[in-house]
Write a structure and sequence with these properties.
Elements (H helix, E strand, L loop, with lengths): L1 H9 L1 H23 L39 H49 L1 H6 L2 H21 L1 H34 L5 H19 L1 H5 L10
Helix pairs in contact: 2-3, 2-5, 3-5, 3-6, 3-7, 6-7
Length: 227
């Protein structure tokens, strides 16, 4: 026990410097990672070919019969856009979840770092044990931690990202349920193209509201026709 305390006292300067640098550097890295999107958007074209058939460039199958391409119905076109918007919402949800995670870690590391370094600098025993140069370096680390906190606002960023992630999760669930209901009605022979288009416009509007709420707040109101 005495040997451990003696080693800590002998290496107090090194431990204080390394701990402060690790805390501030880790918080800066976490803040930067919270600004990087987790998923990149990629567009893929998928061609579905029936089993046992291959389509050549001329549009003919291997059995020689010409099969003209199927023209999608308006409802199918709208459904494809709805599926694309739902996938966009999923990507945004994953990005906001990642941002909330790294912003929270950054805020926690900054708080711990500030408390550790601030506590060391406030201790008269430590100030007497450390060299003036190291005390000045630790003071710079506290200043750097404060600047990182003021620039990135990790706590506020984490709270905003959590709120947006919750809104996106609700939007995804509601949209998938409404799409399933419309698919069931269309499968029974009913035409619900207008309802599919309405669902598409609703998802797009909600995504815009969640992504840029200030744009919705600044949007001019339409004049009242009854006036």
């Amino acid at each position: 026990m005495h040997s451990i305390l003696g080693w800590i006292r002998a290496n107090l300067e090194l431990l204080a410097a390394v701990g402060g640098v690790i805390a501030v550097a880790s918080s800066l890295l976490a803040s930067l990672l919270s600004r990087i999107p987790e998923h990149l958007y990629k567009n893929f074209e998928t061609v579905i070919i029936p089993r046992g058939q291959q389509i050549s460039k001329s549009g003919r199958t291997l059995d020689g019969a010409y099969r003209p391409p199927r023209v999608p119905t308006p409802s199918q076109v709208a459904k494809e856009r709805v599926l694309a918007r739902i996938e966009e919402a999923r990507d945004a949800f994953r990005g906001q979840t990642s941002s909330a995670k790294w912003s929270g870690r950054s805020g926690n590391l900054l708080t711990v770092g500030q408390y550790i370094i601030g506590g060391l600098l406030a201790s008269s025993f430590v100030q007497e044990s450390l060299s003036p140069r190291l005390v000045g370096s630790l003071g710079l680390l506290v200043l750097l931690a404060s600047l990182i906190k003021q620039h990135f606002h990790p706590e506020a960023s984490a709270e905003t990202a959590c709120k947006k992630a919750a809104q996106l999760k609700g939007l995804i669930r509601t949209s998938e349920d409404q799409l399933a209901i419309l698919d069931a009605k269309i499968a029974s022979g009913q035409d619900h193209t207008d309802a599919m288009i309405s669902l598409l416009m609703t998802i797009t509007e909600r995504l815009t509201e969640i992504d840029t709420p200030e744009a919705i707040e600044q949007r001019p109101e339409l004049p009242d026709k009854s006036a």
